[in-house]
Amino acid sequence: MILAEEFSRHPKARDSDFSTNSEERGVFHMTPRLASTEACIRGALVCQLAASHSSPLADAAELVSPYVDGIDLNCGCPQPWAYEERVGSYLLEEPELVADMIRTVKGRLGDAYCVSVKIRIDPDLRRTDTLVRNALHAGASFITIHGRTRHESSGSDPVHLDAVQFAVDCARTCGLQTARGTSPGDAWTWAEDGGAGGFAPCVVNGDIWSNEDAMAWRAHTGARGAMSARGLLANPALFAGEPHTPREAVRRFVDYAMKWSLPTSLLHRHLAYMLEDTMSSRAESIYFNTLASPASILDWLTNAGYVS
Ligand SMILES: Cc1cc2nc3c(=O)[nH]c(=O)nc-3n(C[C@H](O)[C@H](O)[C@H](O)COP(=O)(O)O)c2cc1C
Q1: Are 73 and 29 in contact (CB under 8 A)?
Q2: Residue 229: CB within 6 Å of ligand 1?
Q3: How many domains does the chain have?
Q4: How many Å apart are CA 270 and CA 274, to the nearest integer?
Q5: Banded pLDDT at 111 (limits 50, 70, 90)
Q6: How far from each other are the two terminal CA atoms of the chain, in whole angstroms?
Q7: Which reaction does it catalyse (predicted)?
Q8: Distance CA 188, CA 139 (A)
Q9: Is the CB of 205 under 6 A from ligand 1?
Q10: Ligand 1 center to 205 CA (angstroms)
């Protein structure tokens, strides 16, 4: 999540908050497990922004637009500082402002520009209904629904799939055929919107730890897509059906990190997530967490047989 106001105002914020490279939007050759043929998939990059007003959001969206395929408006960050700044989950109570933000960005970047919204469910589902409808009527390209309220924690509270299903139904009963197809003759095209056609797509999020979870959550809620955060951090090959992070994924991640000069702190943190399952003891995990330099991390990976 990038704070739109700072990003749009200060070059320093832009330098520190956003970087990308040609490979992030490159073409990937996927070997699907369930199909017999290889698929070619272009990586889509979406920049998530937090804002409390429409115009800085549109400014930030415009600045970042040459480098990404779309922007996502954060309406779910539950942290107290975010709520006080009137960003993130604060927007769950401001459906009209959310609609205005989407319209303003689309007004600036064109109707076909992909503007999505990530929400949490509300304890009062009528609010969720209003928010979803407002967002879609304003032209939201898709909605990601985290099945917890802003008062609930990912660490201790279960995800409410029935509430996500409710939100997906709200989106369906809007009757809108994706953001592009809101008026007759305004034909939606694959190339422009990058959506999935049909009803405005929803994505379910929360506690997806395996590919089976993703399929089950989709079946339960009717969402077209599934998003995982902690699951993917722990196992980036989750959606390939791998039960644990494969060694090849670690090797490839380290290669990319070196090639693109990922800051050491991020390299370290991501490896800690990925390798947590494989640590033989708590002591080993603690030892790994104390490694401070790229050289010591690489030594550890070499000794453990991840890189040569
Ligand atoms: C390290 C970390 C960083 C996150 N940062 C963001 C963020 O910037 N924007 C956002 O919408 N959600 C963020 N989240 C929340 C996740 O997107 C997701 O909604 C939440 O973790 C529940 O999904 P999960 O059970 O798959 O982890 C973050 C989560 C984690 C663990």
Answers
A1: no
A2: yes
A3: 2
A4: 6
A5: confident
A6: 35
A7: a 5,6-dihydrouridine in mRNA + NAD(+) = a uridine in mRNA + NADH + H(+); a 5,6-dihydrouridine in mRNA + NADP(+) = a uridine in mRNA + NADPH + H(+)
A8: 12
A9: yes
A10: 9
User: Are 192 and 252 in the same domain?
Assistant: no
Mean pLDDT for 232-251 is: 94
Based on the fold, state whether residues 161 and 282 are members of the same structural domain: no
- Residue 43 is predicted with a pLDDT of 78
Amino acid type, 100:
D
- Minimal-distance CA residue to ligand 1 atom 7: 1
Q: Is 201 helix (H, G, I), strand (E, B) or coil?
A: coil
Supply the range of the domain harboring residue 271: 247-304
What's the pLDDT at 143?
95
Cβ atoms of 13 and 3 closer than 8 Å? yes
Residues 195 and 275 in one domain: no
- Ligand 1 lined by 118 (C-beta under 6 Å): yes
Distance 170 CA to ligand 1 centre (A): 23
Last residue of a domain, one of 196, 228, 260: 228
Residue 125 has pLDDT above 80, yes or no: yes
Q: Closest Cα to atom 3, ligand 1: which residue?
A: 229
By alpha-carbon position, which residue is closest to atom 4 of ligand 1? 229
Side chain identity, residue 212: E
What band does 269 get if pLDDT is binned at 50, 70 and 90? very high
237 belongs to a structural domain:
no
Q: Is the pLDDT of residue 194 over 50?
A: no
Determine, yes or no, domain membership for 233.
no
Whether ligand 1 lies within 6 angstroms of the CB of 89 is answered as no
Inform me whether the pLDDT recorded for 257 exceeds 80.
yes
Strands 46-50 and 2-3: parallel
The CATH number for 185's domain is 3.20.20.70
Would you name the residues annotated as active-site residues?
77
Instruction: Please check whether residues 207 and 168 belong to one and the same domain.
Output: yes
Indicate which residue's Cα is closest to atom 18 of ligand 1.
Answer: 229
Q: Is 78 in the pocket of ligand 1 (CB under 6 A)?
A: no
| 127-183 pLDDT tens trace | 999 999 999 999 898 999 999 999 999 999 999 999 999 999 999 888 666 544 333
pTM greater than 0.85 (yes/no): yes
CA of 44 to the centre of ligand 1 (A): 18
